[in-house]
Amino acid sequence: MSETPRHEVIVIGGGQAGLAAGYFLRRAGVDFMILDERQRGGGSWQHMWPSLRLFSPAQHNSLPGWGMPPQPGAEFPTVDHAVEYLRAYEHRYELPVRRPVRVDGIRRTNGEFVVTTDVGTWTSRGVISATGTWRAPYVPAYPGMADFTGPQWHTASYPGPEPFRGQRVMVVGGGNSAAQILAELSTVAETTWVTRRHPRFMPDEVDGRVLFDVATRRLSGATNGVSELGDIVMVDSVRKARERGVLRALPMFDGLTRHGAAWADGTEREFDSVVWCTGFRPALRQLRPLRLSRRQGRIPTEGTRSLEQPRMHLVGYGDWTGAASATLIGVGRTARTAVAELIAELGREGPEHSGGRTQTPLDTVRRSMANRS
Ligand code: FAD
Predict the structure, then answer these.
(1) How far does residue 294's CA lie from ligand 1's centre (Å)?
(2) With contact defined as beta carbons under 8 Å apart, do 108 and 309 qualify?
(3) Residue 88's pLDDT is what?
(4) CA nearest ligand 1 atom 9, residue
(5) What's residue 355's pLDDT?
(6) Parts of the chain with a pLDDT under 70
(7) Which residue of 115, 255, 296, 343 pairs with 122 in a disulfide if CB–CB is 3.0 to 4.6 A?
(8) Quick one: pLDDT at residue 55?
(9) 143 in a domain, yes or no?
(10) Distance 330 CA to ligand 1 centre (A)
(11) CATH number, domain at 182?
């Protein structure tokens, strides 16, 4: 790139969160660009294991504006269906996504963001970070991990059941990924499930719809939230695993050994592989040059807005930045608020901070957002 392209807003990440933000930015007439490091659209869904099913029916997995079409023959859509939907959504709203572009760092210079990537530099007045969590798998530290001789996997690298056929496998973690992976592995391997606390299964009739409703009621203060229902959604595969009697969990081990794990009471078990389903952290490495405060992988925010960089918003990282914002159905609400606040913020600073360019008519934009939200 010979000269530095400049936009009013740069969105980093073109998964569902970036697309939802793009939808509202486009509707408001803002000049923006989405940068995404992957070759193709669909965000991290394209890397999830093929048998994974969404935990609610298609119509309850919709981004703003256009609902996910039903998948013929599948009440709970497959990951391929989710990927197709996101690619079609991007196309339908002609969202300007540039890929593959990996954002390496963001700095602030003369009141503007300078976004450095592997193919050049962009500048903007506002930034929306929508980089998800897939790039930041989390594995807790336990003694002996380096001594274990078998392969160790994470949800993010789980390849499906075939490599585990006939093995003894330990699955670690008490959430949905662990339960679904355990359910699948238990059909081809001898599985042991280990959780930090006793697994909490939701009632069979609870799916993503109910979770979203509960998250919404929590926003209005009517309930304490989703966690009171449990942690694990009883999708079909998990229900079947319960019927086969494989959903029994052991408490956490003290450490790994060369060939397995050892518990405080002296028990030892041998395994061929370990699958860590221990979650993810926000993928925020590209924000490091801004030198923001950090606590447990997060930066200080109010809603989606960075407290230390008020023209930067974060969308799609889960309840941290907005109720249910890591889900397909929930991210639209967070994206709408983030875009409305960012536009207001850009407008408040006025044209004298705008680098002397001809501006997007922000007053019109703000009015438009106010009318529509
Ligand atoms: P992502 O999909 O990860 O998109 C982020 C994008 O940012 C990616 O395209 C990536 O290439 C890009 N990016 C990252 N870093 C950079 C960088 N430095 N430079 C440029 N681009 C970058 N939600 C549901 O609603 N229903 C479900 O059933 C469901 N099941 C799930 C099952 C699993 C196993 C997991 C892990 C999550 C599930 N979720 C579910 C949660 C959520 O919907 C997904 O995680 C979703 O992919 C999050 O979207 P996102 O846009 O926030 O992040």
Answers:
(1) 22
(2) yes
(3) 98
(4) 43
(5) 41
(6) 1-2, 208-209, 211-212, 214-229, 349-373
(7) 115
(8) 83
(9) no
(10) 13
(11) 3.50.50.60
- Residue of 16, 75, 115, 211 to test ligand 1 pocket, by largest number of atoms within 8 Å of CB: 16
Instruction: Evaluate: CB of 43 within 6 angstroms of ligand 1.
Output: yes
- Both 231 and 344 in a single domain? no
Together in a domain, 256 and 307: no
How far apart are the CA of 143 and the centre of ligand 1, in A?
Answer: 31
- Among residues 323, 328, 339, 349, which one has the least CA distance to residue 373? 339
Which of 68, 278, 328, 331 gets mutated to test ligand 1 (max ligand atoms within 8 A of its CB)? 328
Distance CA(107)–CA(64), nearest Å, equals 31
pLDDT at residue number 351: 42
134 Cα–ligand 1 center, Å:
6
Residue 225's pLDDT is 52
Asked if residue 131 has its Cβ within 6 Å of ligand 1, the reply is yes
Q: Is 13 in the pocket of ligand 1 (CB under 6 A)?
A: yes
Work out whether the CA dihedral 227, 229, 235, 238 comes out positive or negative.
positive
pTM of the model: 0.90
Contact residues for 295 (Cβ-Cβ < 8 A; gap 6+): none
Q: Which of 276, 305, 329 is the last residue of a domain?
A: 276
**Region of residue 112 (phi > 0: left; psi between -120 and 50: alpha; otherwise: beta):** beta
Pairing of the two strands 103-109 and 112-117: antiparallel
* Per-residue confidence (pLDDT) for residue 126, from 0 to 100: 98
Residue 57: predicted pLDDT? 86
Q: Which domain holds residue 291?
A: 6-135+281-372
pLDDT computed for residue 211 by the predictor: 66
Instruction: Give the pair of three-digit tokens for residue 40.
Output: 């193709």
- What's the pLDDT at 215? 62
Instruction: For ligand 1, say whether the CB of 48 is within 6 Å of any of its atoms.
Output: yes
Q: Which atom of ligand 1 is nearest to the CA of 44?
A: 2
How high is the mean pLDDT of the chain?
A: 89
Instruction: Determine if ligand 1 sits within 6 Å of the CB of residue 130.
Output: yes
Q: Is the Cβ atom of 327 under 6 angstroms away from ligand 1?
A: yes
